[in-house]
Amino acid sequence: MKHSKQGTERATADSGRRAHTKERPHSLETRTEQVLTGESIGVGVAIGPAFVVREDPEPDLRERLSSLNREEEEERFRDAVIRSISQLGKLQARLALLPEDSQFEIGSLLDVYRRMLGPSRLQRGVTRRIAEGLSAEAAVFEETEALAQASHPPQGARAGSGEDAAAARRRADEFREIGRRLLRNLTRTPFLTLRGMPDGAILVTESLRPSDAALIDPSRVAAVVSEEGGATGHTAIMLRALGIPAVLAVAGALDAVSGGAEVVVDGDRGRVVVDPASDTLVEARGAVAAYAQERQKLGRMRRLSSKLASGEKVLLQANLELPAELPLIAQSGAAGIGLLRTEFLFINSEELPDETTQFELYAGLVEAMGADTTTIRVLDWGGEKPSEALERAGLSTLGETANPALGLRGIRLLLKHPALLETQLAAILRASAVGPLQVLLPMVTVVEEITAARDIYERVARRLRRKGVALAETLPPFGAMIETPAAALTAGALAQHADFLAIGTNDLTMYALAADRASADVASLYDALHPAVLRMIADVVNAALQHRTPVSLCGEIAGDPILTPLLVGLGLRSLSMTASAVPRVKQVIRSVRYEECVRLGRRVLAETDSKAIMKVLQEFGNAEMG
Ligand code: PEP
Ligand code: MG
């Protein structure tokens, strides 16, 4: 484990991140306020005394290299696996004490760890290395490090960026984390202990593992400051889910903060103030109170109706990527699922999910939604991600084209391999007997894709009925995603063949601007506020209205409250977004009037660049939404 070498000299505490100082004018002691910066995780501000925890050094892997006995090492490894599984079980048991959204975040991570400890590549790799003569410790270290590096190669050799790179980094962290747990169990080295930590203290540590974060009690720990980590890692995700303000990647924190020192942690701005001056403290106390009030207000939103101040109803639904997110939907007050991405069924599986597996899953979700509709999108495989299940079935398109996003993606892949679509449609149709649902086709570019898929849909329904399987009386609505410029520009024709349209601005932006949504190199060009994208949205909504075809929008921008009045002004009455965004969007919906949204829409469409559009939206937000 590396220890920070930074001295206490503040201006040089970090390369890139600067520490600033300010005198404490009213302090009897001559202590100086010190500001450190790091990565924010965005959950408010906390004030409290510092509790500094230094980790024990990692075990020495060179120990015991002589006199190794293969069977003994295998036995020790098995024992460490059993201990690790049992510790994860205890963590799992603790989850019930946490808020529901935290249960989901942490629960899915514990599942990942448990899968790694089961019959997996990791297990096979460690056993092979032991057979080659390594100690259990060295075998675990080398295997988990090799898997981590394969997931996220070191700088230079790495391909990909943006979301993909962040996911790869998280995967690498998962391997290293499980490796550390196994090593500590092999050598009986204790884990991070918070024994003796006073309630309301601020934990200052070199690094916080996700599983350590899972053990933190949000009612006892006011905030976290860590020298390592980053805003997109699992530790950050967990702290965010637990609602604990935190600043990560704060270089030199251990040297700068002594135990008991008063600390302000601003998780929104990524600032840590040690020994704050009195004006800093006053400001921080104001922020703590405002944050608590805001949370309360958003909590109340769940029960309020989603209507504009002028009375028109706007349907707010949730996008769902994993069934485990279900509790978040209930908490958010979303009225159903506007987009169920079914890719999860194919990603973590060695076999293609059969009809029954899919049916049980869809039926469970539909039942949980009660009278609210579930929109199930059939598989949107892009070819850019590996899927063991599709590869084994000989259906993967990976590596066959230089431009996977322009290749056999979404409905194109499904129509090329209709058996895949038939199985999924049969499962969805069977779930239609349980409650209201609708079917959505991804990546449509031509009318024929809708008509060909609908033929299959109706044929599958006839077959099921012949066999006496219970289905909904009328076939569930059959809709198309509008996420390519071709679909947007011919939305009128598509609207005549689809029962509803769903605008997917994530891909629409990518294809309209020729800017990969996952590439950091073109991130500044990837902008849904580009007039080209906004005009397409407006055209799609108009075409849908003309043909009386319901239309919704389910790209990421649906969850951005600053855009809400614009989307309403462009004519949308149905938005689907990540569940946690629903309360804030509803707050905006309830505060704006329809006529002013329409005026805003016209003004925005007259603008010619996205910066000017953002300025108009911000001015509207300041004037109308307070
Ligand atoms: C979209 O493209 O906007 C969309 C909702 O689909 P996905 O993000 O799953 O591609
Ligand atoms: Mg899409």
TrEMBL record:
Keyword list, A-Z: Cytoplasm, Kinase, Magnesium, Metal-binding, Phosphotransferase system, Sugar transport, Transferase, Transport
All copies of domain Phosphotransferase system enzyme I N-terminal, residue ranges: 38-149
Domain (PEP-utilising enzyme C-terminal): residue spans on this chain: 297-592
Location of the protein in the cell: Cytoplasm
Biased composition (Basic and acidic residues): 1-32
This protein's record includes keyword Kinase: yes
Sequence segments annotated as region (Disordered): 1-34
Entry EC no(s): 2.7.3.9
Superkingdom assignment: Bacteria
PEP-utilising enzyme mobile domain location: 198-270
SUPFAM superfamilies documented for this protein: Enzyme I of the PEP:sugar phosphotransferase system HPr-binding (sub)domain, Phosphoenolpyruvate/pyruvate domain, Phosphohistidine domain
Keyword Transcription part of the UniProt annotation: no
A Pfam family per the record: PEP-utilizers
Required co-factors: Mg(2+)
Family statement drawn from the similarity comment of this UniProt entry: Belongs to the PEP-utilizing enzyme family.
Function: General (non sugar-specific) component of the phosphoenolpyruvate-dependent sugar phosphotransferase system (sugar PTS). This major carbohydrate active-transport system catalyzes the phosphorylation of incoming sugar substrates concomitantly with their translocation across the cell membrane. Enzyme I transfers the phosphoryl group from phosphoenolpyruvate (PEP) to the phosphoryl carrier protein (HPr).
NCBIfam families: PTS_I_fam
Protein name: Phosphoenolpyruvate-protein phosphotransferase
Organism for this UniProt entry: Acetobacter sacchari
